[in-house]
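BUG-363 | component: ligand-complex export | severity: low

The export step for guanosine-5'-triphosphate jobs runs without errors, but we want the raw record kept on the ticket for reference. Input record follows.
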Amino acid sequence: MDANKAVIVTGGHFGDEGKGKVISYLAGNDNPDVVARAGVGPNAGHTIYKDGKEYGLRMVPCGFGNRNSKLYIGAGVLVDPNCFLKEVAVTETEGRIFVDKRCAIIEDRHREQDSSNAYLKEKVGTTGSGCGPANAERANRTIKLAQDVPELGKFLADVPLEVNTALSKGKKVLIEASQGFGLSLFYGTYPYVTSKDTSASMAATDIGIGPTRVKDVIVVYKAYTTRVGAGPMQHFIDDKSIEEYPLWQDVLKEAKAKGLSGPVNDVLSRYLGERGTVTGRARRVGDFDYELAKYSAMVNGATQICITCLDKIFPECKSVKAYDKLSARAKDHIRTIAERTGVPVTLISTGPLPEDMIDLRSS
Ligand code: GTP
Ligand code: IMP
Ligand code: MG
């Protein structure tokens, strides 16, 4: 059998782009043999729906819904054992989910440090999940690894060996990253960033595959930009700047028709349902940041773009499954994103359910 190459799905703005939803669609549609989770750790919260149930997954790969897929958590990912074991129970994935033996372990003290350190909590606005202090300890080479935790014994694996062997046998491998490009420790809006790089190359390293084993990098953006936690954000919509954006004036009208009132950005955030999966904090809302999108597509080596939440700003597109059925203004938006980033938009998400997807990929 021919050797295969992996597909990486990563976030192109500030996280929460809907990667979880995209992965759950790809897992169902493409039937991957392997779904591997990359990224920082349980600071991520992917929201997905399966069989009418909502899951907010912080450790288990979002492709869990396909029972044929083996699930892995790569060595680069921080593991919170309690969170992991709870999610394994909820998703009923024991027996086909594995953790690299070298994953570093988040303990109570990391969470306490994250929440009690004013710089991290107030200035950076972290998720409080302990990831930053744990990665600092990892760099100090004092942190405990998964192989030292008895409760994780039955889940341990050599993830690079498993994934590279699967690829050599021609199996399909899907890698899900977390967070987003603007939160990268290297390339994001430092110091308002997370504790690791968040680009596609890092995701490959997290899992233990080389750059030559990657076929596609699908970079995910919402149809607009959101950001949770502190840090700069271009094209923030407020009471004044909304005058520059006819589209946002329309969205605001609809929000007000639903009885929402208050400062413009709060109203938009509530209307669009923008609340952090892990922390419940409101996400700020901005117009689509083309500059950041273009730059992140470049550094990620994007081969394809996926746009999510199109239905939230163009309600007439809700659950549409064919490109031709999208409204002219929505098609215009998609075309502009493709033109300004120089990367084809091949996946368009029109609702939170896995089946709310327009799939324009050629094969
Ligand atoms: P991180 O790994 O934390 O960055 O998260 P994520 O990229 O998986 O995104 P998250 O699930 O935190 O947030 C996306 C939100 O948008 C979730 O509530 C999804 O259910 C929802 N969502 C995703 N795609 C769509 C869509 O096309 N339409 C609508 N209406 N909601 C969507
Ligand atoms: P930390 O990763 O918890 O240290 O948080 C650092 C910054 O990254 C804060 O602004 C968080 O809000 C943000 N962040 C971390 N993970 C995510 C995520 O998965 N989605 C959105 N923002 C995140
Ligand atoms: Mg999230």
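Assignee comment: Attached the raw record above. DSSP finds twelve helices and 14 strands in the chain.
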